[in-house]
Amino acid sequence: MTNKAKFIGADQNMRSFNFSLISTVVLLAIASFLAGCGTNSGGGANAGDNETAATVNGKPIKMEDVERAVKQQAQGQESRLSPLELASARLQVLESLIQQEVMFQKAEKENTVPNDEDITAEINKQKTQSGKSADQIEKDMKDSGMTEAALRDQVKKQIAIQRLVEKITGKIEPPKDAEIEAFYNGNKDAFVKKRGVKLAAIVIDPANNGEGDTTVDDQSAMLKVNEIGKKLQAGQDFSQLARENSEDQSRFQGGDLGYIAEDDLKQTFPEQIAADLMNPNTQIGKMLVTRVQGKIFIIKLQDRSDKDEAVNLDSPGVRQQVTDSLVNSRKQLLAASYQAIAMNEARIENNLAKKVVDNPNDLSGARPAPPAGSAMSTPVANSNAGSVTNLSNANSGGATNSQANTKTAATPKPAATAAPKPSVSAKPPAAAGNTNR
Known about the structure:
The chain is α+β, with helices and mostly antiparallel strands. The chain contains 13 helices and nine strands.
């Protein structure tokens, strides 16, 4: 098999990506406290927080905004960073904030800024999807230094930029039949349905994740698993039980994990479980219970393919998948080009970068050091977290999906001009046991 993406299979629901241009920094506002990755670094202001880190067309970006974003990326790794790494993280975060501000100002001119009701609705949706109690969300916000006003501002920019990109890329027309056929004929080896299975799952997390969580240890988790098992034996619908009980984002799809190729299956689940699922003697509909990184999975085998199968444009969903891939690739390129022009036209002054250049032998942060013993006297950033407006990221995931895991370069990169490749085999959202609550 080549390194081209593998076709996910005719029986899988085609999931064309929902392209949007949303800065990772914007998403961190929600991801940090809803996904529970904020660190308790304190929220007090430090000397220099009101300094202007940069300006975009005269609009200032304050150091407090930079520090907040850096803190939200800490994820417990602050003690591992050197002063040089912290300085680098600040510069990368500021670059993404500059890109975000440039695009937001464009959004203002194009009248794509949401009203207060839209902002409130989006925040409430994110909070509901997190599965956390109001008290836990409030605590996480405090720990990550996020205020309600700052959250609303970031969500406003998120929505405004997304709507802007949708407006810009709405000009893209569907490809003609000749283009679709040419792409397929040039990539036939990529259109293969690999050996694998289609799964659904109900995920139970024994960890105590805050007020309202009924599974706080192994004992309570197993009690819940047994309770669900009895309901399944009584004939209750698996997808409905998943929506009501699963502690994983897949609950919104009734527990559907999609089609998983055999190789991915072996990397995701214990060896014996993978073998049982691929065993031809295992009946479709069978349910198994296993653990993945501490979380308990009640798995239902929905379908299985025992051999690799080539598919063509007449196979269900294939033509639409090619169409979506071609359209989305063009949208990426158009959006990347739009941002490149916007960045070129903007008047940008990066004061933080200038301080580094002016003080080459003092890179401890390119700003006055905070008072000894203060919250920010300890580095609190992931030096690799170059969170930027990622034009080439095909999966905005609803923000939460992603959950701010993608690391990207500090400058926008246009999408490749080569023909797009079909989707890869889907993995469970909790493939590594990293479920979101």
